[in-house]
Amino acid sequence: MSLEKMYESFFTIALDMACIATTDGYFQRLNPAWTTTLGWTSEELMAKPFLSFVHPDDLAPTLKEIERQKNGHIVISFVNRYRTKNGEYRWLEWNSTHAVDGILFAIARDITENVETEERLKKSEAKLLKQAIELKALSEKMEHLANYDNLTGLPNLRLCNERLDMALATQRRKKSQTAIFFIDLDGFKEVNDTKGHAVGDMVLKGVAERLKASLREGDTVGRIGGDEFLVLLPNSGTKDEIAKIAIKIIDVISKPFSIDKEDMCIGASIGIAISPTDGTKASELLVHADKTMYDIKNCGKNNYAFYS
């Protein structure tokens, strides 16, 4: 078999789309793979400028590649879309020689399945990423709901206990002390019953803001029940310093809350327990501070006392 016939045989049986074209825009020869891939006969493809089969969005880059070939450059892995006989488009990847005497020799491979698979993977990845973001947001929301009071945004009893345990662990290492305040609002039930829950909720929010503004950086204030609050003072200092904070809290809570042009007046009873003197476990301190708070309520309210 002559060399020419061998080339002809390779051209004919090649699975990729082999072609000879001119730089003025027409196919001169096409192997059978073109018809297999696009559905057009060789005669139909050669009867029109090859650019007429290119997707409109790919015309500009295709023309640019042809100009590069005219200037002596080869084409490696250039991608565009060609129209099939049924009106769809197939993605083709081109490799081509530079132009020789106005003639181009090129091989195109149908990569449509690869492109579509990649697109599906990108969509799947985007969907998975979106789901991961949504799950993270849901997890954060659930964690927030598990640790914070929905009305005031303050830490709830669960988170207060965690922070108290941490403070007690630090206290043991540093040989310091930790104080907790068990606070019950005086007169709040009357406001809630006579003015309604909406007004009562506004008062609770106001109490939360005032408590936060009264504490040091690093202290914790939480809402642990209807009108009950807990204050945690790590490295609390002397009894006199603790008493000053209690007095400040009673003072700010006793100031009227102006709601709908009406003043709501309440007070606060505070029971105080200090670790390690009054206990070294969170449960002990909470019980002692709670008991002391009720002692205050039974002795005139709107005051504070240390556990004894």
Q: What would you say this structure looks like, in words?
A:
It comes from Shewanella aestuarii. Residues 20-73 form the PAS domain. Its cofactor is Mg(2+). The protein is an alpha+beta fold and 308 residues long. It folds into three domains: 3-110, Beta-Lactamase; 115-147; 157-306, Alpha-Beta Plaits (2-Layer Sandwich), CATH 3.30.70. Helix content is 47%, strand content 23%. It has ten helices and twelve strands. The chain has helices at 3-13, 33-38, 42-46, 59-70, 112-147, 157-174, 188-195, 197-214, 239-254, 282-297, and strands at residues 17-22, 27-30, 75-83, 89-96, 103-110, 178-186, 220-223, 228-233, 257-259, 262-264, 267-275, 304-306. The strands form three sheets. Strands 2-1-5-4-3 form a five-stranded antiparallel sheet, sandwiched between helices. Strands 7-8-6-11-12 form a five-stranded mixed sheet, with helices on both faces. Helix 10 links the parallel strand 11 (267-275) and strand 12 (304-306). Helix 7 runs antiparallel to helix 8 (197-214) and helix 8 runs antiparallel to helix 9. It is rod-shaped and about 115 Å long. The N and C termini lie far apart (113 Å). The model has no long low-confidence stretch (mean pLDDT 92).
